[in-house]
Amino acid sequence: MPLSEQEQRLLEEMERSLYHNDADFVASVGASRLRPNYRSIAIGVLLAVAGIVALIAGVAIAQLWLGILGFIVMFGGVLIAVTPGKAIRSVPGPSAPGRRPAQAKSNQGFMDRLNDRWDRRQDGQ
C-alpha cells in the first residue's frame, strides 16, 4: 500500500530530524557492516565435508575413533564457516565540544547510551 503525500512528507521530515539530531547514532548504526570472509567460509565448508566423509567412513568400517574425529572436524568446519567477518568501519569525524571521549562511550551498553541521550535532550543540551 503506497504512502500518501502527507505520510511521505512526515516520513522525510522525521528522517531529516534523525540525521540532524542524532548524527552520532546514525553514524554508529550505519558505519559498521560485516564483510563476509569468503576464505573462512570455503575452508569451513571443505572441513565440514571432510568431517562428514570421515564420520561416514568411521561408521562404515566400525572405527569409533574415526567417527569421533570426523564429527570434531565437521563441527570445527561449521564453526569456522559461520564466524562473522571483519567489520568495516568508517572513520569518525571530529567530536563535538562537550562530548565524552569515545572510550567512555564504548564501555557503556546500548541502553545506557540511549538513556544518556534522552537525559541530555530533556535537559536541553
From TrEMBL:
InterPro entries: DUF3040. Residues 113-125 have a biased composition (Basic and acidic residues). Pfam families: DUF3040. The keyword Transmembrane applies. Keywords: Membrane, Transmembrane, Transmembrane helix. The chain crosses the membrane at residues 41-58, 64-82. Residues 91-125 are annotated as: Disordered. This is DUF3040 domain-containing protein. The lineage of its organism: Bacteria, Bacillati, Actinomycetota, Actinomycetes, Micrococcales.
